[in-house]
Design goal:
Blueprint (H helix, E strand, L loop, with lengths): L16 H20 L3 H20 L9 H46 L4
Length: 118
């Protein structure tokens, strides 16, 4: 059992840098898919896992190595795509909330106008 204050990335200490990078790329691709599928629960879990692996990669300066230049670009691109997809999802949600709000106002007005006839 690991002490409560132990660094989470200690669990990854025996993993090869290339494995960590491949794992992060897969997690980010999965996260992008979950965002596109509006699967918030899976997206949230994948975000947590990806952050854990990304922390390990950052602490060990893995992506600063020349051999990971292509991987670094792919990872940055995945983060950009995830951000764009989440922003689009947020915009869609805001549009839906606006429609719900308009519907609520219409029903409230109708309810108020029919009070006189009850």
């Amino acid at each position: 059992m690991k002490p409560e204050n132990a660094n989470k990335t200690d669990d990854l200490r025996d993993i090869e840098p290339a494995q960590a990078v491949a794992c992060l790329e897969k997690l980010l691709q999965d996260q992008l898919n979950h965002v596109h599928q509006d699967d918030d629960a899976r997206s949230s879990r994948t975000t947590t896992e990806a952050a854990y692996v990304a922390e390990f990669i950052a602490e060990n300066k893995v992506l600063e190595r020349d051999e990971f230049n292509d991987s670094r670009q792919r990872i940055l691109n995945l983060y950009r795509r995830i951000s764009a997809a989440m922003f689009a999802q947020k915009e869609k949600t805001l549009r839906q909330l606006t429609k719900v709000s308009k519907g609520h106002k219409a029903v409230s007005k109708y309810n108020e106008s029919t009070k006189n006839y009850r």
